[in-house]
Amino acid sequence: MLHYPAVNARPRILILYASGTNRDRDAAAACELAGGAPEIVHVNQLRAGERCWSDYQMLVLPGGFSYGDALGAGRLVALDLNVYFADEVRAFVESGKPVLGICNGFQALVKAGILPGCETGDAAQCATLARNARGHFECRWVTLIPNPESPCLFTRGLSEPIYCPVAHGEGNFIPRDEAMLMALRARNQIALTYGRQGSVLRREEELAVEAQPSLLGSWSSVGYPDNPNGSVADIAGICNAQGNVLGLMPHPENHIYPWQHPRWTRGEGGGLGLALFQAAIRALACGV
Amino acid sequence: MKNQVIYRIEVRAKPGFNDARCAAVAADVRTLGLSAPVAVEIADLYFLSGALSEDDVARVARRLLCDPVTQTFALGASPQPAGAHSVEVVLRPGVTDAVADELVRAAHALGARGVERAATGIRYTLRGALDTEQVARIVRRLLANEVIQVFTIDEPVTPHLDYAAEDNPRIEIIPIRDADDDALVKLSRERRLALNLEEMRAIRHYFAEIGRDPTDAELETLAQTWSEHCVHKTFKARVQVVGEGSSFADAKPATVIDGLLKTYIKRATDEIAAPWVKSAFVDNAGVIAFDDEFDLAFKAETHNHPSAVEPFGGANTGVGGVIRDIIAVSARPIANTDVLCFGPQDWPFEALPEGVLHPRRVRSGVIAGIEDYGNKMGIPTVSGAIVYDAGYIANPLVYCGCVGIAPANAHPRAPQVGDRIVVLGGRTGRDGLRGATFSSAALTRETGDVAGSSVQIGNPIVEKNLLEVVMAARDAKLYHAITDCGAGGLSSAVGEMGAALGAQVQLERVPLKYAGLAPWEIWLSEAQERMVLAVPPHNLAALQAICDRFDCEMSDIGTFTGDGWLRVSYRDLRVCDLDMRFLHDGLPRRTLRAVVDGRRGQAEEETARQKDQRLSRLMGLSPGQVLAKMLAHPNVASKEDVIRLYDHEVQGGTVIKPLVGVGNHGPSDAVVIKPQGTRGLRGFALACGINPSIGKRDPYAMAVSVADEAVRNLVCVGADPARIALLDNFCWGDPEDPETLGALVEACRGCYDAALRYRAPFISGKDSLNNTYLDGRGHRVSIPGTLLISAIGIVDDVTRCITMDLKRTGSRVYLLGETRDEMAGSLFDEVVGAVSAHAPTLPEHASALYAALHRAILAGLVRAAHDCSEGGMAVALAEMARAGRIGIRLTSLGHAEPWVALFSESNGRIVVEVAPEHAPAFEALLHGLPWAMIGVTTELPGVWLPDGTPLLDG
User: pTM (2 decimals)?
Assistant: First the structure.
């Protein structure tokens, strides 16, 4: 039995809300169940100084369609982060506190240059989440294989794949160039990859995939629909080199109860996305 | 402001990177049947104006418009491509462009404060052997909709960024007191008031009494308030009914129906008197109790005419509108439903009536519109249906439904004298003028041209902000009443909310998208995403603070007076000054005539010879072949490609999903939702029933069939049959036509009978009449009378729910209910070309049967259940077997005639899978009810008939 910290020791979690965010309550429910004390905070509250970044131990950028996905998913939240909160966000990330970007939040972190994070250290965008290869929004359940070598604190100690839904139209992860991909692999920043439905951990097989000659070639080893958006190398989630920032397209916050599994009426279960949230809160309890 | 520079930026994919849209457009072009293959390239266009430097423009492009990894940008127009055609499309002035609005905001944030206006567009490059005429055809059929867009071919497009206009305080006085009857009719037609002579006379009389002529705004206010859309005059009219063949002169007074709504729909609700119904037919949505703490609201609407003209915008704002109905009962939306009726997708272009969009385009636009609004609002779109029929080619049906949740009794509904009239949300423009009268009139060939201003484009993010404001204001108890701005705009919202008190409005306080609107346009505009609240003055500051947090505009435009008059001014000009009593009670009640076909529903006994003839059409067809045709029929085939475009997981409460089974692609009978933030494991189930094919044969049979279908779908997943509420949504033709109205009367009678049989009250409904279309030859085409019944049911413990996929081998398969030869209007008739005699009836035992099945589900005795609907038991068995990837060996068919057993669409039937060890207990629960053990599940996939021949191959 896992012992959660006492209620008054629950870490405070900032769930960042911008106009058009819509999985904020889902993320808050997951944080709460995992032992955190989430608070949904509007960007305007932070801008007005009604809330302060440094009062929180963890940051979640939840899913949704911030600013209607105008000018590309996540682009305008990225602008908010870089224009209004550049110092606060940098301090948050550099302090090693857990930061989780889910779906639209992942898109924002990538477009703000926070993920995967360039070696030069400037906030330049060096990867993207392009329109799905199939050209449309898609909602379906996917299997996520954690990388046991990754420094990512959210996937630390995960013993089984995560099963949860995707629901996006722009989730096709593309690094700037091949060198960037090699670097992501070398630093084990590829924290989560799409796996075949029903797959067990199979890191060896994953590692055996040879580098392909071109970014445009098929990098997917599992193919559609297990890789639902055409992401290069089946990348579902990326962390920064330090491991405290994770961005992923799928929605672990929508599989925190067994009855959310699409085949629970068939007796199937497991692969709760809750594990990611628990790992982060555990890490906080151990003092990241 | 004149002749100012417009900067143009083109953004396109870097060489080697795919823009997935290109392939999709190319595929659509292929369906046009052009001889040569066409390759498509796409560039996004952005236009900026204001006091800008080239550096500003480049910075905006680099930081905001272009993805550095996959895209490049260029300033200015690129040269015409050699050997190819270019097509450029931009929006017409005044059409909502949310991206452009965000672009201006973001450019300012980036420091480019000189940006004043922005516009977006798209440029297609078409490569292939095409002449200009073919390019124009591609544009009109696929790339642009001239209702909302303008386009150019082979030259750069220029958007209208300069739409500054002067203030326009023009008020027209319409001389109605001197008008004779002909002039009244002409006035109604020319101003598209959609009022008949009797109604026009009432207006003339009123103004003669008060001794002046009406303003344009007053006439429009009356037309909107008295429109079919707003007041449902057909459903409230007296209906004189005669049997076919007799004349109205003979009709006895006893055959007058005192209003369809009162006589059939509301009466059922009153007689059932369920204590858990909190509000029926009073508010913007029906309300039932969920548990001790929460209520559920449910409403379905249609948006047919707008979707015919501009499918994306029509469906988009249809979803937005029904969501506002839920917000208007102070509830948070938690599930969307959509039921769509389209023309056949392979319909030849040559056979389309003039001015009608192709059914493929209607379908893709409508689905994209639903996807856009629901997904962006973060509401799971979970339940629905798609029906294809040639009757919907010119007039598609788009039913949008929404469920919301609110703390019990949290919805205030009593404005007070002195309350301020507050508008929240979007700004007002010319969008959607006269929507209510537009929806109440027939579509004509010119509709697309003249109705342009009736079409709105939604902005779901504005509505999301509005939602959050209303939820916070509700919890802080800041308002006394709330309603949405739908058809009729402010005129309806303020007119209804102030009906008892009277209201005074100052239109110059309404924030506008652009100047130049006449006062009547501000008053009648159907600009989207607006709500009207009655707010006590001392709460205004608190409400403003909430609005500021959520980037939502708020304006105080007037007050509720207590004098019983509707007074509207624009500065010192009188725009409207009407007695509320006349506005709301002055509409003369209509008396309509209906012919009811007495032979419907009680067809003569089929002779043996006739039966032979019917079945002889099957000569050479095996049951397996008939089933294969059914499974390939678009009405039965999987809708997975559409369902996955909708987010059905957001809010984390979707316990039984729309797609179930081993591969997550079996069609669930119903979905089950456990709302976020509620206690325990209670949830609710949603389902629907729709079947225009039966309606063509027998409208009464259609009504009882779709009501039964909606109820049995809920029962199949485990909803409590004693806690089911219904919505009725009629889409019908011209009610002035006695036969059309007669069919409507029969359908309403069916609603009443079915509701009482299942003790399932109606809590809300809506009718969309005049779904007719005048084709190029002046022939009036009417849609098949179509009734959608949506059902919501309470599930006490969501973890006891079941799904339709077969679970295990070695199970027993049962058929519950009684099968009869009821195949009129069936899918069987359609695929084999037969004309059967009897339509499905209201099953006698269904209520008891559903209660028994529910007890069995609660006791854990049932592994799977699936209802028999289109295609009968055969389709049900096939779907269960496929979804579970195991087989069924039938041992009995439950009826002596195999064709009837397999394909009849008798109501009240459910196929059930039961573990052998539970069979005795299960059968005991069914004591005295009709059931049959029909087979066992097998490892070998497929379905096998008792004689060993395959019905469905594995």
Answer: 0.94
